[in-house]
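Protocol step 4 of 5: obtain the predicted structure for the target chain.
Materials: sequence only (see below). No template structures provided, no constraints applied. The aim of this step is simply to have a reference model before the mutagenesis design in step 5. Sequence pasted as it appears in the construct record:
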Amino acid sequence: MRMTRARLARAVIAVAVAALTGCTSGSGGDASPPSAAGDGAACPEAFADAKAAVAAAEGTMVPWTGPTTGPTAPTGKTVVFIAQTMTNPGVAGVAKGAVEAAHAAGWDLHLIDGQGSTAGIQSAFTHALALDPDGIVIGGFDPNVALLQLREANARGVPVVGWHAVGSPGPSENPKLFTNVTTQVADVARISAQWIISHSGGTAGVVIVTDASIPFAKHKSELIGAALRECRGVRILSIEDIPIPEGNTRTPRHVSSLIERFGDAWTHSVAINDLYFADAAPALRKAGKEGGGPPYNIGAGDGDPVAFDRIRGRQYEAATVPEPLLAQGWQVIDELNRAIGKQPSSGFVPPVHLTTTANVGAATYWEPDNDYRNRYMAIWGR
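Step 4 output (C-alpha cells):
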C-alpha cells in the first residue's frame, strides 16, 4: 500500500591500476619525500593540472544533464531498498531520497538494513524477495555477497538497481543489475588526489583509508593512490584498511598509531567515505591536533550532512567529493520505473563536485539542481 505521511516521516527519520601494489596498514610510501617548497616545484605539470581541476570542481552552478523523458510511473508498486548498513551516512542519504521519491511516485518502499554483515545482507535480501516486490535497490554493497538471492531475483524477472554496487555506472551483466547509480569512481578518486596535490603545493605525506572488503571501495582507493603518485613530492605513508561497520571502534586506534609513527610528516588523509573522520576526530583532538590544521582530511565520498558540518566548522575535515545523495535516491526510483516499463536505463552519470570550506555555505547535501524532484515527477506524470 502507499506510504502514509506518518510512515514516510518515520522512514525519513530512520535514514536521518593496482598502484598500491598490495600495500596495507603499516606500509611505507614508495614516493620521494616532500620538498620544502610547497609551490608545485616537485611536480609542476601535475600541480598545474590539479589546481585547474580543483577550481572547476568547486563550481556550484551545474546545469542539469539528467533525463528529461521516460515512462509514466504506474501507481501501487512495491519496491525494496536493501541497505548495506544504515550507519553508513552515504547509504542513509540515498535511502532518504528513495523514500521521498517512492512516496511521490505513489509506491510503497520497504527499507531493510543489512547491518553491515554478509549474513545480515543475505537475510535482508531473502526478506526482500519474500515481499514479492516489483523492484529491488542494492544500497552500497557487493551483490556477490548475496549472489543466490540476486540470481533468484533475476530468475523471477524482478529488476535490481544498484547504488555503489559495482565499480562503474550503468548496466551490469555479471552480476546482473538493470543499472548501477554512481558518479564515475575514477573521476572521484582523481579529484580527491588532485585536491591534496593542489592544497599541499605538491608536498604531502598522505594516509589513505579504505574498506578492502568492498570491491568498489578498494578499487577507488587504488585509483587514489595511482593519482597521488603522479606527483613525486607526495609520499603515501600508509594505507589503512578499516571495514566501515567497524570504523567507530577501529579508526581511533589506527589514528593514534599513525600519529605515533609519522608525527608531523602526516599532513593529509583521504578516505573512501567521510564517516571515518567522525571517528578519527576524538583521537586527533586528544593528540592536540587542531580541527582546522593538519592532517587535512578529504572524503572521496559520500558527502553526508555531518561531513558538511565538519567542513563548515573546520573540525577535522577540509573537503569532500560528495555524491548528490538525495538526487541519487530519486534516480534509483526512476531507474526502477524504467525497468518496470521495459525501457532502457537513463544512462545518467552525475558529474563530480568538490565541497570545501570555501563553498560549503549552509548546505547539508550536494544538490546540483534544486529542481530535480519536479523533473522526475514530470517524467512520471505526477
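Step 4 remarks: The CA atoms of residues 78 and 226 lie 43 Å apart. DSSP finds twelve helices and twelve strands in the chain.
Proceed to step 5.
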